[in-house]
Inverse folding.
């Protein structure tokens, strides 16, 4: 009995503290939680990709672009809410690109289709921009340290842009607090 207590105490003393700032969070910890933003709830299943092969399953045709820029892992969730009293869907994906230079290079990669994007100064992350697609959809992206974040919405209004920005600031706050 004494040996068991000693072994348990020794194990507890050696266990890594996962509550401090040095703790590594799971990639899905950076996603917006269900109803964390009023009126926006999970829609469908989330996914996590821990390698490029898994990422290819979820973003067919684009995984090589992320791999070129140091892809480590990603997490994704769709959300359902309303914009201008109409149902809308928001897609959020957080990519761990391992370093700030990798995330910055991915952010600037023309393969992502952000040519002509509007910079969001004072927005989320180290840099952020968005593109509007003629009333049909919007995409907003930013990077913070080694993470690249993509948000897409299936509508394009000022209200939907404000929702995208709210989600971006929420995720950015989580990335800042690591």
């Amino acid at each position: 009995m004494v040996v068991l207590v000693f072994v348990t105490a020794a194990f507890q003393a050696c266990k890594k503290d996962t509550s401090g700032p040095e703790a590594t969070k799971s990639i899905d910890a950076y996603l917006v939680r269900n109803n964390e933003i009023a009126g926006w709830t999970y829609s469908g299943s989330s996914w996590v990709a821990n390698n490029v092969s898994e990422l290819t399953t979820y973003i067919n045709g684009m995984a090589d672009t992320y791999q070129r820029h140091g892809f480590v892992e990603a997490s994704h969730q769709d959300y359902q809410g309303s914009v201008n009293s109409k149902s809308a869907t928001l897609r959020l994906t957080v990519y761990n690109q391992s370093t700030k230079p990798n995330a910055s290079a991915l952010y600037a990669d023309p393969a992502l289709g952000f040519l002509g994007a509007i910079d969001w100064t004072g927005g989320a992350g180290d840099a952020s921009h968005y593109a509007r697609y003629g009333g049909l959809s919007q995409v907003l992206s930013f990077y913070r340290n080694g993470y690249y974040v993509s948000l897409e919405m299936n509508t394009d209004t000022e209200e939907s842009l404000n929702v995208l920005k709210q989600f971006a600031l929420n995720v950015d706050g989580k990335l800042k607090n690591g």
Observations:
- Residues 1-23 have pLDDT under 50 and may be disordered.
- The helical segments are 2-14, 52-58, 63-68, 100-108, 158-176.
- The chain has one domain: 32-176.
